[in-house]
UniProtKB/TrEMBL annotation:
Taxonomic source organism: Candidatus Methanodesulfokora washburnensis
Keyword DNA-binding: no
Protein name: Proteasome assembly chaperone family protein
Coiled coil residues, start to end: 207-245
Keywords from the UniProt entry: Coiled coil
Length: 252
């Protein structure tokens, strides 16, 4: 077992029954959703997990530096929402493959200690035909039915969940003391996709009554769509010009 340590900065005054977790992954849906929820629900940092298995992107040791010149080691962070009793579990990095289960089990241990009963795990998936939709599965049948009522799809596509999200779901099932629901936003491709995150957030807002404000996210989606449109136009013009230049001066 490697070096993994949890540091608690502030203890919630009462048990927190709901947790939402999301990590960097496909189309960065999990990371985007969590970053948005931390901001919208005014999350306050209450604990962090540090580990030798948590490295910077590219699997290199190092630190991140904030705008004030302070620095932090890579970590898994726990935020307590100020607007309602929800713990938000978020990290900007993925653990090394051989340390994912150890980190996941430490997350489960701490959530259990906080009194969490239900965990929502946010992930991303690619399927161009179903882009913008949400897939749901888990062991909380009543909650899953609520998501179905709001348009969620039954899982017939996902065969594997990799990274910390997969290890975390495995640790939850192994622990068998908390209910879990996997919420997956479907993206057009593997690149950053705020529309898939928007679909997840919208459905969570409807089912869980989070009272989220989507103005900022919708603006970001519009900006990205405009950038994509311009890039496609430029590529089409470039291809057209190259085609004209290479056109032969004979027929056949």
């Amino acid at each position: 077992m490697g070096w993994t340590k949890l540091i608690e900065y502030e203890r919630p005054k009462a048990p927190v029954k709901i947790a939402v977790a999301g990590f960097p992954g496909v189309a960065n849906v999990g990371g985007q959703v969590q970053a948005y929820l931390v901001n919208e629900l005014k999350g306050k940092l209450i604990a962090r997990i540090f580990s030798e298995h948590l490295l910077l992107p590219g699997n290199v040791a190092g630190i991140t530096i904030d705008e004030r010149g302070g620095f932090n080691l890579p970590s898994v962070d726990f935020y307590l929402a100020s607007t309602r009793p929800i713990v938000l579990v978020y990290s900007q990095v993925q653990p090394l493959p051989w340390g994912q289960m150890e980190v996941a089990e430490e997350i489960v241990r701490y959530l259990k200690d906080l009194g969490v009963e239900t965990v929502f795990v946010i992930t991303g998936f690619v399927n161009k035909d179903d882009a913008g939709k949400v897939i749901i599965f888990g062991n909380d049948s009543s909650m899953i039915e609520e998501f179905y009522k709001h348009g969620a799809l039954q899982n017939r596509q996902i065969k594997t969940i990799i990274g910390l999200a997969g290890a975390f779901l495995g640790a939850l099932k192994k622990n068998d003391s908390m209910k879990y629901i996997s919420i997956t936003g479907i993206a057009e491709d593997i690149s950053y996709d705020p529309k898939a995150s928007r679909a997840v957030l919208s459905m969570m807002d409807s089912v869980m009554k989070l009272n989220l404000n989507f103005e900022h996210l919708d603006k970001k989606i519009a900006e990205i769509e405009e950038i994509r449109r311009r890039l496609i136009e430029e590529l089409e013009e470039q291809v057209s010009e190259e085609s004209e230049e290479q056109s032969p001066e004979y027929v056949g």
